[in-house]
Design brief:
Blueprint lengths: L4 H16 L13 H11 L5 H9 L2 H4 L4 H8 L5 H14 L13 H12 L4 H21 L1 H17 L5 H19 L6
Helix pairs in contact: 1-3, 2-3, 2-8, 3-6, 5-6, 6-8, 7-9, 8-9, 8-10, 9-10
């Protein structure tokens, strides 16, 4: 008997949760899986395709865990057909940062993030849509908890959004509006009370 979409997504969520292990969100302390779940739920409002939702749940797994591409493919083939599995893995690969400090230690953060933005500008519309949701969720956490880093992060997000224009237009507009509003708020002097 085949699994329902909800059962498939629950299976993938459980895999991602186990992969992230004891990782927690830096600013909230909640289990890391809460972030990919929120990203998936945002994406779901615009694209209900199971391979895209799977990729949203798994978007940080290759980057932040010991899971390999082959391990992810094997797990996905347990619940998705081969084309769906291949698409989900490809989206996760597209979303996995390449220009990281470990691999590019001589580049400044600004240079790495600029190269990453350019790379993301060329990924698929589905991957860009997932990245929009990722930006929205990250900005929401960071701006409320760390205004110093938020200025850097929001500037980087705005640069990514400027070049990533192929994803879902409403989701992109939401991300742009949020980043604009946050940048404006971060530039205001602190209120005196």
């Amino acid at each position: 008997m085949s699994k329902s979409k909800q059962e498939i997504l629950q299976f993938i969520k459980t895999f991602a949760d186990k992969a992230h292990g004891d990782q927690v969100r830096k600013y909230t302390g909640e289990r890391y899986i809460s972030h990919p779940v929120r990203v998936m739920e945002m994406v779901r409002k615009y694209n209900d395709e199971v391979s895209v939702l799977a990729a949203a749940l798994l978007h940080d797994v290759l980057e932040d865990t010991r899971v390999t591409r082959a391990g992810m493919e094997k797990m996905l083939l347990e619940v998705l057909d081969a084309p769906q599995s291949k698409k989900a893995v490809q989206l996760v690969v597209e979303l996995t940062d390449i220009f990281i400090n470990k691999d590019y230690p001589t580049l400044s953060r600004r240079s790495r993030k600029e190269k990453e933005a350019q790379r993301l500008g060329a990924v698929s519309p589905e991957a860009q849509s997932i990245k929009y949701a990722d930006i929205i969720d990250n900005i929401t956490d960071i701006v409320s908890q760390d205004t110093d880093f938020a200025r850097i992060f929001v500037r980087e997000a705005k640069r990514m959004l400027a070049v990533m224009d192929a994803g879902h237009p409403q989701l992109r507009e939401h991300a742009i509006a949020l980043s604009d509003r946050c940048m404006h708020d971060l530039q205001k002097p602190a209120e005196l009370s």
